[in-house]
Amino acid sequence: MLKVDNLSGGYGKEPIVKNISFSVEKGEVLGILGPNGSGKSTLLKIISGILPKLEGTVEIDGKDSAVYSQKQFARKVAVLPQLHAHAFSHSVKDTVALGRYPHQSGLFSSWSNEDERAVNEALAYTGVTRYSDTPIELLSGGEQQRVFVAQALAQEAPILLLDEPTNHLDIAHQQQLLDTIRKQKNEKGVTVVSVFHDINLASLYCDRLLLMENGRIATIGDPKDVIQETTIGTVYNARVKTQPHPELPKPQMTLLPDTKEEEKPFTVNKQQFTVSADHVSFKVDQPLKTISSAVTNPGMGWYRAFVNRHVDANYNADDVKAEMADYLGKRGYHLTDTVGMMTAVTTEHAEIGEYKGEFGSVLIMVTAGVGNAVDVSESLTRDREQRIGTINTWVIVNGHLPDEAFIQAMITATEAKTKALQTEDIKDPLTGTIATGTSTDSLLIAATQEGEHLPYAGPITPLGKLIGHGVYDSTVRAVQAYKKAKVWPS
């Protein structure tokens, strides 16, 4: 559809873009990325004919673009430049209608039903129909940008060249515009080549990415192959972290500041726990990086308050998350800063320990009841109604953990809990076999992200050894306290 071969060019005799070669297939979206001055916009202008090429070729449908007349080229390629100049006052609809120029013929061309349809469709696609009769100069920069995108769409060319199409747009209109472009690709097979400043948007909406550096191609390929921490960090000279998008198989990038805000050395200790018959809480001044299976704020995040709440064994609520949020709010907990769990065990019997190693220390909190014990290997045979969790485990680390260490810590803590149940001879009452947990256990791993870097948390690592010993020891003590108190009969 579009083929660029050994293309060089720019504004003068010294090329800005050097020896660029790539091709884009019909119905493909290619995003062009690169730092300021890397040649992104220059490349697009050379392809569109706005700037001259010094060498190389641009082919459209197998033909050199130079053989097309201006109108013929415009029927093949629609261009949205980065900056727009409108010397004359036009209404929005008239501005969009200029996109139909390549389809007009003769000195006195008549406006056709097809022209009207294309313009109205483009207005609707970009959400500017309500401005049809408004002079374009009265619109905001973002609204004007959407009008010029509509003009390009009204042209109905099979190839779209876009230079920062989301410029001046808020996030809602960025999404709407890029969704529109993807819809053009999916429904009409439009080929799109677009310059982006926003790497995350480019990753979400493009099939492939071309990363430029100093006028040349640094790399080209699938977003997951281009948006690599080392590649982006080197080309942009910035510290970045990549992670998967929560809903799509696309990478997303986060900037990492070169320096943190200056803060005093930060550690946590056992004295920061508060225990009552109603709940166990743990509060800190600085947020901890956390992963959990909690009711309130599950998953990964940064939080300052942690609550393990006692509820009756027969607790029932139509909306558990809303009820829990109400409980926390009434007690002064900031919902966006708090992790909240529930347990059917009386929380005043919580076991809390502090376990010290050469790198620092680990705090463990366990509430454990075993009346709802389950052998996970026999769970297929069970039809018992799910009940509120009874074994809730917190592991809080004075140290710096990468993401993989959080996952390893969860595995190590779970293995230690299971071993503790074996030691205490806790059995699944329905199968008579050794239990591995209860039906709705919860687990939390948190870290200060200060102090020593702890890359692993497996059972033979310094961190894993403390977690394994601490969770085992605390769980055994919690189960023994439960048995002694008989707070929830089996």
From TrEMBL:
Residues 2-239 form the ABC transporter domain. InterPro entries: AAA+_ATPase, ABC_transporter-like_ATP-bd, ABC_transporter-like_CS, AdoCbi_amidolase, P-loop_NTPase. Keywords: ATP-binding, Nucleotide-binding, Translocase, Transport. It holds the Pfam family CbiZ. It comes from the Bacteria. This is Adenosylcobinamide amidohydrolase. It comes from Sporosarcina highlanderae.
